[in-house]
Amino acid sequence: MIRFENVSVRYDDAASPAIRGVDLTVPEGELVLLVGPSGVGKSTLLGAVCGLVPHFTGGTLRGRVTVDGRDTRTHKPRELADLVGTVGQDPLAHFVTDTVEDELAYGMESLGLAPAVMRRRVEETLDLLGLAELRDRPIATLSGGQRQRVAIGSVLTPHPKVLVLDEPTSALDPAAAEEVLAVLQRLVHDLGTTVLLAEHRLERVVQYADQVILLPGPGEAPRMGVPADIMADSPVHPPVVALGRLAGWTPLPLSVRDARRRAAALRERLAAGTPARGPASHPAPGTPSGAAPGTGAGQGPGSGARSGPARAAAPHPGGDPLSGADRGPGGRAPGAAGEGRPAGRLGRLLGRRASAAPAGAARGGTRAVATVTGLGVRRDRVEALRRVDLRVSPGETVALMGRNGAGKSTLLSALVGMIEPTSGSVTVGGRTPHRTRPRDMVREVGLVPQEPRDLLYADTVAAECAAADRDAGAEPGACRALVAELLPGIQDGTHPRDLSEGQRLALALAVVLTARPPLLLLDEPTRGLDYAAKARLVALLRRLAGQGHAIVLATHDVELAAELAHRVVILADGEVVADGPTAEVVVSSPAFAPQVAKILAPQHWLTVAQVRAALAGATA
Amino acid sequence: MTSMTLRAPRASRSNALHAGAWWLWALGLAAAASRTTNPLLLGMLVGVAGYVVAARRTDAPWARSYGAFVKLGLLVIGIRLVFSTFFGSSIPGSHTLVHLPEVPLPSWAQGVRIGGRVTAEQLVFAAYDGAKLATLLICVGAANALANPARLLKSLPGALYEAGVAVVVAMTFAPNMVADVVRLRTARRLRGRPTGGVRAVLQIGLPVLEGALERSVAVAASMDARGYGRTAPVPPAVRHTTGALTLGGLLGVCAGLYGLLTAGGASYGLPVLAAGLLAALAGLRLGGRRGVRTRYRPDEWGVRAWLVAGSGVAVAALMMWAAAYDPAALHPSVVPLVAPELPVWPAASVLIGLLPAFVAPVPDVAPVPHVSPVMKATAK
Fold first, then answer.
1. Whether residue B283 sits in one domain with residue B215
2. CA-CA distance, A614 to A267, in Å (whole number)?
3. What is the bridge-based pairing of β-strands A575-581 and A567-572?
4. In this model, does residue A530 exceed pLDDT 90?
5. Domain count, chain B
6. pTM for this one?
7. Nearest beta carbon to residue B372 from set A138, A179, A512
8. A contacts of B227 (beta carbons < 8 Å)
């Protein structure tokens, strides 16, 4: 259906081609998943299918791309519109009209279909995607999952033979992602549509794929094969694959169901070996390669060096740190906060203020960085939050979860003082956020927003850092040193816009950390990050938590929560519906459990790293 | 036929009233307002428009514009009164309310007065005049609140479709840009910077524009990939004819208008204008052949649309007739100052404008709750 014949694409201002030597065929009626680390040209490859590359983006395409026999060199995107449906990363940027029904009809109107045909297809598509109740709604009022479904529906109505999707579930909560994937499944099975999609969150999609195309690195030729084969040595893979590789299962399981069938023996071994309690409270430095299951890309040399002595001191990494963690979140901090052990350059940069906090917390045990009592927030008639209580202690990592619109971002905004509480109180570092001047507040709490770019104004990294030093009242060079630590090898003159998602996030994090806030908030930090960037982020946040920073993450990423969080707080309709240690909250929940927990339930294992550590401990 | 079938149905896409009907109705009321300065009649017109808006508006974003237009109307009256107070008026009056200190002006500024005597007559005249303008504005506001602007643009002829799309896209951009500004302002707070002030605006402005630009490129890509701008092959002869007709028609319109406005040119102005218009319309019609677009569920001009538009036209026509028949009743005397009276027949004719509140389909009152079907399924 789609044929790439020795295709390479080079953008006009680029030194090397974005993709090279692509030679593959996507057969009709298959769901093909395109995977690979960030920046290997996944979007370029997708764009080449619908003709936007190179007709719209510019650049030079060598070789030949044909879709159902039509050559994209001679057919412009608009002439492929009846054949290929494309949905980009941001569904909002896709919409041309203002209501759901008009949006579904737009593509057909452009193609000049007869009114009666259009009417019938709109009704069919409304039913197929479960949008019938939303037909008259303005698009601006829809939730993320609904928007994504409308975007898919809007390209489905002209009955394309090929559907191209770029990260359709990245911005969605787990339930909404399931919604969208169910729709794709249905299209492939019932209508025989060929679907080509790129996605970072493999744990969500890989089990649905018929074939996987792996782009191993920038400019490298892609490999195509059945998912189990490709996943066997792919640098990007979901936790279920990592666990399968660890346990030596062949063929590799791709879904939780496959893995559970084989996991009985593993469960027995683990049950006999280690009591799995609060696995997430593994201190980061004590868990070798814990940050980057499988990829190994996430760990800086500093953390690797530090894991050495930790291992020597604790021959059973699964046991000793755990008992320490049982004393409470503060209990793990002293070991990691650099009292006995050098904490690296980042530790020195942040250490002065941060290391004092966990020590106090360990002694007093009760001093909270932030306290939220009976918080209520109302906007117009919508109660965004109702009677929310939350306490965050130094060194503690809390994950806020819940579906889109549950109030996670509102709670974070209230913590930094952007929103005035309607009722109840918020105290951060002894201050009331919305009554404190922004200049003073940044020293108490830092928030990295959903779109890290919002925090960056300057033209270059160096200018951004200088501004951050001034804003925070830090000595010149403080931010640049942080950037060097978080983002090694970044040039002073780089424009923040040219950074990748992960790099931009790190830069924003450095800017926020310049003021050394004891409380760090992150809103959806893993959106658009690949596994390597995510692993780096996990390692980084663990180090920060180890130095006594309290961290609150609002996230849909259950795997991230499982890796990092000591505690999970689940919000629904603005109320706290669950608050407790990660393992307890997450294991029993179908939506919020990470894959490892689902496979090894009822045991409380959350991450591959824990399992690996426990197995190593058992054999040692 | 029972009384049930006489009640207006619930609004849906299929029975949606044509946006043009609402505009005709509102313009009819506005035309009526322009014929009178009687504050009682003007008040009735505002009341009629307001009642219909209250009865038939949706909770769409544009529907909230009515309040803004009412405020604008009040502002107009206020400004008119202030000007009249400070700059005097040509209305002679005997009821002096207050003597303001007069600014002495040089002789070349004769006819201009600042300060001085303020009479009741001049203020009442200014208020009447302001009220007329305010009513016009409020009628336009009513049309804005009742008619979906996007659907009005969709009723444009095919050749103007591109222009319509540009406007629709621009309209969806405005709210997005406002959201961007809010987001970036709050982000400034996260950096510890003040959110107000000129510097903040400047620093936010660039990223906002950048974001808008990026979004427009993304929308353009999406439109291209969805078949925007596909054209049907048109023979060169038709293309040339289209060009000639459109260009010639527009020239004709210009010449015709010039003729109408110059003294003594009316004789040739009108026919030239008409011919120009016809040619331009024919050009547009031919130009529409290039597009392959079809229209999905265009608004139909049905009985209800006739009634709504007709009621507005009727109000305008009756008021114009009344203005010719009994001008005094529509323009209450200011000198001498008398209390305005309500002329019975014009007042009754204004009430015809209430018809849409009974014949137009009723919009749903409560917005649909924000719950996705899957969530509901799991809740069960």
1. no
2. 12
3. antiparallel
4. no
5. 3
6. 0.76
7. A179
8. 78, 81-82, 107, 110-111, 158
